[in-house]
Structure formats: C-alpha cells, structure tokens
User: Fold this.
Amino acid sequence: MTSVRFAGISKTFAEVEALRPTNLDIPSGEFLTLLGPSGSGKTTLLNICAGYLTPTAGRLVVGDRDITNLPARTRNMGMVFQNYALFPHMSVFGNVSYGLKVRRVSRPEIERRVNNALAMVQLEGFANRAIAQLSGGQQQRVALARAMVIEPDILLMDEPLGALDRALRKDVQLQIRRLHLANPRTTIYVTHDQEEALVMSDRIAVMRAGSIVQAGSGRDLYERPVDAFVACFLGESNLISGRVASVGGGKAVLNAEGLDVSITGRAAPGLAANAPAFALIRPEAVRLIKGGIPASVIERVYLGEITAVRLRLPNSQELWCRRFAAEVPDIEKHEIGWDETAVSILPDINPGKRSVLPC
Amino acid sequence: MAGRVVLSAFSALVGAFLLLPILAVVPAAFNGSSFIRLPPDNWSVRWWGAFFADQTWRRSLVTSLQVATLAAALSVVLGTAAALGIERLGGWVRQLALALFVGPVIVPVIVLAVALYSLARSVGLVGTTTMLAIAHTMLALPYVALNVGVSLAALDPRLRLAATGLGASPWHAFRTVTLPLIMPGVIGGAVFAFVTSFDEVVLSVFLAGPQAKTLPVRIWEEIRVEYTPIVAVAATIMIGLAVAAVAASRVIQRRDA
Assistant:
C-alpha cells in the first residue's frame, strides 16, 4: 500500500504562507500532477512529501504509516529534480547505482539493476559516460533511472522536462506515461505546463496561491472547472462576464454585459443570484450558425487542420472560435452560437480584477 | 600601440619590484665566500653542505615541516567543518560567525603572540611543536574556512538533497558528494595553511624553544649573530618548498576539475 494522504498540511516560511492547510488523497498507483503557476505551492507540497521540508502543521500518511517526522533518507521515495541534480563527479553508472550502494545491494545485483534501469530509459551502453558528455535529454533520463532503480514506493518529479526542447519534451512525456502504465507506481508530478499534465496524469490538482483549487481527471477539469482560474489554466477559454440571473438544478443563467441574450450553462459551485460571474465557452464550442449572435472577424489564424478566428461581439467583447478550416467561410461577418451543454457559468472570484486570471 | 609598450614596461617593473628581492636570495645561497654578496664572488654549494651538516639547522627544518603539516591538517578539518556550519547559518548570525573567523587575520599578530605566550606558559606548552601548530592553526583557519566557503557556495544544494533522498546518511552524503566536489577548495585551503605556518615568524619567536625551533626562528637567531650565506640557503629552501606546495595544489586541482 503506497497511497499518500496529505492531511491539513501547511507550510509557512518566515510568516509567508507558502502552503495553506491542504488535504489531498492519492490512491496507490495513481499518477497525480500538481499543476499551477510558479509560487502556487506545488513544489513546496512535493518537497514536504520527499521530506526535504518539514510542514508547519498537518500530517503526511503513506499507506497506513504517519511519516510526517521521518527523515528523507528513510522514506524510500525517488525524486527527479528540475535540472536533474546529477552528481557531476560520477559516471552514469555512479549516479544510477548510488541509491543501491547506500542500500548495500551486492555488486552483481547492482550491475543487473542498473543495466535494467538504463535499458528502461533507452540508455544501454552509457554506463561509463561522464555526466558532462550527455545531452539534456540523456541527463533527464539518467535522473529518471537513478530515481526508479531503487524501486521507490513513491516517485516524485519536479518539472523534470522544463529544460528540454518542445519536440523532445513530447517524446519523453509519452515515454514516462508508458513506463507508468507498464508498472503503475504512485507518482506526484509537478509542472506548470497544462499540456504535460493532460498527457501524463490520471488526476490533476490545480494549485493557486498555496491552495489546491480543484482536483480531478483532466476531463473533469476541462469540462467542469470550478472557477475561471482553473478554466484558464487548462486549455483556452472564452470568458464572457455578466451577472447571474438565476441558479438552480445544476444550471445557471447569466445576463451577459451589453448582450441582448442570456447564456445558460452548467452551474459551478458558489454561484449566487445577481453575483458577478463568467460564462466559459471553449473556442471549439463556438459554432458558426445562421440566426445566432452577430460577430465580426478581427483576425483569422490558419493552423493547418484548424482555423482560429478572433471575433468581436456586439458588446465589443472578444471571443476565439476554433473550427476545422473547411468549415470557416472567408467572410467578415459571422453569426455564432453554442450548445448549452458546452457552457459553464463560473463565479467571479476576484470581481473587477480580471488581470489575476491567467487568460 | 605605444600605450601597450608603456603598460608592458610598467608591468614588468612592478613584477621586478615584487620578485627581485626574493630571487636575489637564490644566487646568494650559491656563494663560495663567507659573506652574502651579489653577484656571488665564486659559485659553490659549500653553504648547502654546511646547512645540512649542522644538526640545529636540520632539526629546525624538520620542526618547520612538522608544525606546518600539523597546522595544515588541523586547520583543514576545523576550517572545513566551520565553513559547512557557517553555510547553514542565516542572517546576522552568519555575519557574526564570519567576522569571528576572520578575526585572527585582523588582530595584530603581536597581540595574539603575547596572549598565546601567556596561555602557553600557564599550561606548560611553551617551546613545543604542539603549541606552535595550535598557534599557526589559528592564523591558517580563516584561509581554509574562506576557501572552502567559496567552493561550497558554488555547490548545487540539491545534490545533497538528491543523495539523502536516495537513502544516504548526512555523513555518507558529505563523504561521497559534498567533499569530492569541494575538494579544490579544501586543497587550496590546505596549501595556504601550510605556507602560512611555514613562513610564520612572530608567533613562533614567542612560542619556540630549544626543543622546537622553526626555520624562520632559526634564521632570525642566526642573522643577529652572523650574516653568512647559510641564511640564504635556508631562505632558498623556504622559497622552494612554498613554490612546490602551490604548484602541487594547482596540479591536483586541475586534475579534479
């Protein structure tokens, strides 16, 4: 049993609350991603799990064991650091075998396990290379092998792909995903890259200002975000501001500012009648229909199979629409609409301060 | 172009000003006559033979090597430990600790000498190799602590976290990760400590005795009585050892890097 439970875990640095009291349960074998902007507390949470930081309050339970006060070296967790933190004075073999030597594994067994680990990350034959001779992608894989070879109960990764170029990053994302599916191990992964989170995770916890805002599958978060922050952090969002006309039965109606129509959609928690709110309409949910809301084209971006069109509504609010290129006629005036099921009505958590949103 | 010539000439003059007095001693050691004279009247190794034939000179060279080795070893252990400790401190405590460690360099050596002399007398350590080594350690410690501190500051703190995360005890992580990576600083500090002790005079004059007399003290005593090229021989040996120590440390540091 290697489930992880954060129970009321918080961390304060010199009177700055880096992590507010946080509860999170990670079932055994789950790949959980902590997703958030820098300073949101995701690395703090990871370091508390690793034992590099002591929480100010709360308990950390792994399986049925309270390990809050256990030193890092006895926790049997594998950590992959941002920029890898490989030992520069050791060879690839020296790095990967480090945790096994500490555990006094026999020499033949060390050789066998190191070779397996290097094969797993496709670095056979690299054992005697110096770290400085490796490319960034190779170093990243050595770091992964070093963390995995000790058969950790929990694998921790702190933005491990940040230093790689985009093409390589996508490759390694899928590789890590495949390794995880072949041998599911409880994993906590920290990133600020939403695409990375979606590709790899069983579940994503979105963090902001030291708190988890929402945790769920990528699909949950994308389709049913609890607020505009989560909506903006995962995927692209059109937010139309207005006031709640009515709420009930899981639905809400928004009177959009300056528009003659009201927008109906799924109601997020925390909505109250007449309170400021947003209607979230994903760009792919915006359809070009006859008899809809008139919208004029500001710009058109050709993206291969997709064309993205930036439109201006009568209330001068802007909106992105993404359709297959063939569906977009080359005209300057469109009429648009959307399915009610594709719309969410979200509370405005910082009324009047739209700049705090990442979109 | 002319500017460059002037600059080169000036640099050469400054170099000569710094080096010539030291280098002048070397030919003086190979003078066949009984007086220090430049250039030598006739070339000879006569005074080298005299140096090594004289038991008191030989003993003081051995004493110097013993004291310097002991002082270097002591200050490497204490200075490295101090640097590791200081690195973990924060804010004004760190500043205070740093100031304390640099203290022996700032306090006039003569003051330190008088204080150490009275201390050594009260515990009966005047004229011993041990006391000389302890006194020299006080002077050498700051150099080691600062040198190692610079190496530590350049060390990625996550390497230590990575080692402990992989199961290493703090001591094992220090031995296998931290120490190998700060080794250039430790070696540099050790050489500095050795050389500092090897040419130290003021403390040594106070603390030396018939049983433990370092080479600089012996030179000092000799020169007040007689002014023979044997002093130049002793000086040349000191220069040679200091240059060799620094050169050796450079070679080791380059191999490590």
Summary: Chain B has a mean pLDDT of 89. The two ends of chain B are 37 Å apart (CA to CA). The longest helix of chain B spans residues 55-88.
